[in-house]
Amino acid sequence: MQLSKDDLLRAYRIMKTVREFEERLHVEFATGEIPGFVHLYAGEEASAAGFCMHLDGRDKIASNHRGHGHSIAKGCDVHAMMAEIYGRETGLCAGKGGSMHIADLSMGMMGANGIVGGGPPLACGAALAAKKLGTGGVALAFFGDGASNQGTVMESLNLATVWNLPCIFVVENNGYAEATSSKYSVSCDDAADRAGAFNMPGVVVDGHDFFAIHEAGGEAVRRAREDSAPTLIEVKTNRYYGHFEGDAQTYRGKDEVKNLRANRDCLDLFRARVTSADLVEDAELDAIDGEAGDLIEDAVIKAKAASRPAASELLTDVYISY
Amino acid sequence: MARKITYQQAVNEALAQEMARDETVIVMGEDVAGGSGADGEMDAWGGPLGITKGLYSQFGDRVMDTPITESAFIGAAVGAATAGLRPVAELMFVDFMGVCFDQMFNQAAKFRYMFGGKAETPVVVRTMYGAGLRAAAQHSQCLYSIFTHIPGLKVVTPSTPYDAKGLLIQSIRDNDPVIFFEHKTLYTLEGDVPEEAYTIPFGEANVTREGSDVTIVTLGRMVHVAHEAADALSSDGISCEVVDLRTTSPMDTDTIIESVENTGRLVVLDESHPRCSIASDVSALVSQEAFDSLKAPIRMVTAPHVPVPFADNLEDLYIPDAAQLQQAVRTVMGKD
Fold first, then answer.
1. Among A299, B6, B10, B175, which residue's beta carbon has the most beta carbons within 10 A?
2. Is A307 inside a domain boundary?
């Protein structure tokens, strides 16, 4: 699939923004100022960017607990996201959701999710709504290798085929369900192998290769949009940090992350490919690096300065009508 | 123009009228049409008891049979509700909440609050509940108190055909997630129901019988048991007021308290188990808010704290009846 120079710059900007967002959160979390649980997406950026670049305003994504990258790639406001993670009134969810529940329905981001496997049934529903309402939209569920074993996911794969839903299921297999290896917890070599049992294509892609993901994602989105048919894609990826911030990661091999960063980093691989092919200049990417850094710096400063929600907000917005 | 129809027909009519009025209303569930993919006739069942029979012939593929995978289709109904549809999903028996509860209480119920007030999830889950059909422990429970416990859900328990139609139309038009409880022994109950569409607001209890000595707060099928007992007690000169809650979330606390302030006595009649129940909830409410009005300790008449038994004699013992209620009323009247 041919990518224009603008597309390439956009892809890099998304991935770099996510990287900066997550690397900064890693630093800020250690100061103790960020409440609750934070699950970082650093290392997996090519997946969010590679899929979401095919999506537009008609389309919806359901995310999981590791949802910052998906949110940014789907167009959620970075300042409002950062404020949400700090629990501020200016947050995307007014400080009432936090990292695990970031959502912006107006952008088609149906929510991060604190429940492993919670998203795929919801994505089926969004796909059903798109089909019934004739919007031309598709729905995409991001979930992990841990969730790939959940009954909700199996049920959703089945339902998507039974109802011919324009739905894409993306397993981001980062190798670990919390602290347990997917080699232990997933019954088959590739989670995508299960697609055959649900009569849909199952595709495995290298999660460090933006271009492979973008190509597989393009075909899955086309199949959903044009044929109203689902696809299961497994992205073989890696996370640079723990399951959550504070995870000592003693279950990981020595130098595992160091080697991944040195040899398999999706941003480095992207840069090497586009600059060696003379599609983009290093300086253009350097400029994006600087802008992404400035954006995140500004987001953190503003989030820290923002107020916490008013006490009266405790009792609001449980219902639309009471 | 009112005419007599059954509770079952009232539910069906509410669905049909709302589907005709609003194209975004869809119905999904196990065998809600029946016959999908089979060689015989379509709309073969209309649900196991025929409640949705005929909707498929009127509305075609807006009535969707589902695989027996409650997590997927209840979740899909929830997701579709966030994306422009008004799904009415049928959870065949409320006992099956065990395989899909997450999609109701962690997803649907939470969206509005945890997304900062921006989500709308106009989904209705219709579900069959209650004992009396010898269906035993996994097909006979009430469980409405579990849903009532969850902020973000609305819980509706109609006791008559009139209430079933008006409350179901309200449920479909409401923009919050609603769990709509249909008592399986009430489906054949007849009552006056207007032909035209109408709504009954949530959170407004119905004083179905006025009285001066004892307030009986109840819901669902037990409303009829309360009337049976009240009839018998009236011949002994005891005047019972019956309050049908209609919805347990929101709950009309004002009507309960006002009634107890007038009568000075409370018996709560609840088909469900006694612990952490609607009965205990109403008792706590009155103890806190109307203690000074009470002339006698509150009594709760409930099923025992056991699963629903199968044998007919045991199930009959399990279900609270008019005799138990009369005894409780006599106790609070000091006449036992």
1. B10
2. no
- Superfamily of domain B2-194 in the CATH hierarchy: Thiamin diphosphate (ThDP)-binding fold, Pyr/PP domains (3.40.50.970)
Nearest of B91, B77, B95, B93 to residue B25 by alpha carbon = B77
Is B117 close to A159, i.e. CB distance below 8 A? no
- Find, in chain A, the residue whose alpha carbon is nearest to that of B178: A319
Position A1 pLDDT exceeds 70: no
In this structure, what is the dihedral angle of CA atoms A47, A52, A54, A56, given to the nearest 10 degrees? Answer: 180
CB pairs under 8 A between A and B: 158
Mean pLDDT of chain A: 97
Phi first, then psi, for residue B257 (nearest 5°) are -65, -45
- For the stretch A247-275, pLDDT in tens is 999 999 999 999 999 999 999 999 999 99
pLDDT tens digit sequence for B276-317:
999 999 999 999 999 999 999 999 999 999 999 999 999 999
- Structural domain span for residue A249: 5-302
- Whole-angstrom distance, CA of residue B274 vs CA of residue A201: 51
What are phi and psi for residue A311, nearest 5 degrees?
A: -55, -35
ipTM above 0.90, yes or no: yes
SS3 content of chain A, % helix, strand, coil (to 5): 50, 10, 40
**A chain contacts of residue B113, beta-carbon cutoff 8 Å:** 96, 317-318
* E strand intervals along B30-123: 63-65, 86-93
Q: Which residue of chain A comes nearest to B153, CA vs CA?
A: A319
The domain that holds A109 is classified in CATH as 3.40.50.970
pLDDT number for residue A258: 97
pLDDT over 70 (residue B158) = yes
CATH 3.40.50.920 for domain B206-332 = yes
pTM for the model stands at: 0.96
**CA gap A62, A175 in Å, rounded:** 21
pLDDT for position B150: 98
Tokens of B313: 């004699």
Beta pairing, strands B214-218 & B63-65: unpaired
